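--- STAGE predict ---
source: upstream dedup step, 1 unique chain passed
mode: sequence only
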Amino acid sequence: MNRNVFVSAVVVTLVASWMVAVSVAEDKDKPKFTIKEVMKLHKEKLHEKFLEGKASKEEKEKLISAYEALAKNMAPKGDEKEWTAKSEALVKAVKADDKDAFKKAVACKTCHDAHKK
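--- STAGE serialize ---
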């Protein structure tokens, strides 16, 4: 009887550990920001602050995090690879502090025409 209780406890512990591991893995893949939240940063003109060279280190990190999340979100329409490439271009430009590349990558109409519903 004690052995059955022990075995049951071990099985429950293993299953619970596996469920936590799966949950953590899913959270890691889940975007930190929704598309709408990233666009809100644009409405707040954070991208313009970056272009003007006035964004703080924290604001740049927020942009990077937002654009990384953008790449993890599904494109509302259009080609997924194109969506990911555009999002990654934003990340790369902010990380490199490359204003010219960022200005080209952040062109709203280009993304909206291809991907906005």
